[in-house]
Task: structure prediction
Amino acid sequence: MSVEEPSRSRTITVEVNGDRYERDVDARRLLVHFIRDELELTGTHVGCDTGNCGACTVHLDGQAVKSCMLLAVQADGAKVRTVEGLAPADGELSPLQQSFSTHHALQCGYCTPGMLMSASALLEQNPRPTEQEARTAIQGNICRCTGYVNIVEAITSMGETA
Ligand code: FES
Ligand code: FES
Result:
């Protein structure tokens, strides 16, 4: 007698950057791989896959989360925002992205999408963060290049325009 394997896929509905997606996903698929491979939103980076580097940070219902630490099925019914959702239009920069550029807050840029998502989640809650609040917001994001000073300045300077 053969025993039928339980289905490992599940249908999820997720709103990403304002667009609604319904997809069948493997129950074990990580949210970061769903975003990058299924939705082809490759601005979200993978640096470690173990929750250490923060390169995969996105917003889940307004909170900054590491998308390599969540299953895609955990985003069912949620609103996700990726770095592609920050800019107002193709070829334009959001004020925070402009601030990163102005303050030379990136070098190789690998960490930048995750930094932007952690920082933008902070700024949505707290438009005038102190240096310490900015540092706390990005403490889960590793940058191997910049030494963080310019990143923190790019974030705190947003308070001058808020
Ligand atoms: Fe998610 Fe590094 S890839 S924390
Ligand atoms: Fe290279 Fe941050 S700019 S890792």
Summary: The CA atoms of residues 86 and 94 lie 6 Å apart.
